[in-house]
Design goal:
The relative contact order is 0.12. The strands form two sheets. A five-stranded antiparallel β-sheet has the order 1-5-4-3-2. Strands 6-7 form a two-stranded antiparallel ribbon. It is globular, with a radius of gyration of 19 Å. It contains 17 helices and seven strands. The protein is α+β, with helices and mostly antiparallel strands. A hairpin with a 2-residue loop joins strand 6 (136-139) and strand 7. It is 52% helix and 12% strand. The structure holds a DNA duplex.
DNA sequence: TAGCAGGAAAATC
DNA sequence: GATTTTCCTGCT
């Protein structure tokens, strides 16, 4: 099915898809191919219009508007986070990058796999479990695969998951899948709560009780930010830690030199303190600031 | 709380 | 080729 989406505000498809929040989109010439929900899609941006093809009627204009959060006022967000020269420069460089609204289960599983891996590797691991466990469907005569359900991965053996190249992440993925399949993670509730409450709900299967193993503070913040509308979540990964050490040493306090020297090891207390300081500095859209800083940090490394 | 292991692929030397 | 690094978390 072919359709278009008229853009009603700034949007850069390229910056959004290359920002490291989504792992299932691939550039082929002018088009971006991806899978979202249970549809394959190809999208290209022509100025203020998105030209799209999808494998099913489920993924149309309304779906993409919701997926890329195109109905939200990005300029308002960017104005709110532009508190200093560093972030303002990053915003100008990657203007139009939006945070997408992913499926929470897919997002959770993806970032459990993302620990201690680089982006090409993360993409490979996800592609492999999708090919192996995700329902196939055809698009332009080619097989595409949906993201496997929690139940499917919960039923898989750790040995088989390991064979997908997941390494030590295999048992973590299975445990998380089991929790989700068992209904112990209530994403609707997480989405309805405020940031702090949502974080507690996600990090503990039952309030204050057993921890959701394999999900630490960073992964939890990624899930809250990329799939649960918690725009104040400020995930701190190695890139953000380095960016903060370089440009915002006061947020890190005395630990900043250690991180600058490449010896990153944030305790839970330090993580919460630094993340909180970033939230206070950037405000209620701190998560957008985090993503722009992340892109700027990675680009600097590449050059 | 500090130290370490974890597995495999990518990046770097 | 060997070594280092990699969008981290769990265990001791």
């Amino acid at each position: 099915m072919e359709f278009t989406v008229a853009l009603d505000g700034p949007f850069s498809l390229e910056h959004t898809l290359e920002s490291g929040q989504l792992f299932r989109w691939e550039r082929r010439g002018e088009w971006w191919y991806g899978v979202a929900g249970s549809s394959a899609l190809k999208v290209r941006q022509e100025g203020d219009v998105l030209r799209c093809w999808s494998s099913s009627d489920m993924a149309g204009s309304n779906f993409l508007t919701r997926y890329f959060r195109l109905d939200e006022d990005l300029n308002h967000v960017l104005a709110a986070i532009s508190k200093d020269r560093v972030i303002t420069s990053a915003v100008q460089r990657f203007y139009g990058m939006r945070l997408a609204r992913q499926d929470p289960w897919e997002c959770l599983a993806s970032f459990v796999l993302a620990t201690n891996a680089n982006i090409p590797r993360i993409r490979t691991m996800i592609a492999t479990i999708c090919e192996r466990y995700g329902g196939p469907f055809e698009f332009e005569g080619e097989p595409f695969h949906g993201f496997p359900s929690a139940g499917t991965l919960a039923a898989a053996s750790v040995v088989d998951l390991r064979r997908c190249g997941l390494g030590y992440r295999a048992p973590f993925l299975k445990r998380v899948a089991t929790s989700v399949a068992g209904g112990r993670v209530d994403f609707a509730k997480v989405q309805s709560l405020g940031y702090e409450g949502a974080r507690k709900e996600l990090l503990s299967e039952l309030f204050g009780e057993k921890l959701l193993l394999g999900v630490g503070p960073k992964v939890a913040d990624c899930v809250l930010l990329f799939s649960c509308d918690k725009d104040e979540a400020f995930p701190i990964d190695v890139w953000i830690a380095r960016a903060l050490a370089k440009s915002y040493p006061k947020m890190l306090g005395p630990k900043s030199r250690l991180i600058g020297d490449g010896k990153l090891r944030l305790s839970l207390r330090d993580y919460d303190r630094i993340s909180g300081a970033a939230r206070r500095h950037f405000g209620k859209y701190a998560g957008y600031a985090q993503q722009y800083l992340y892109m700027a940090a990675r680009e600097q490394e590449l050059s």
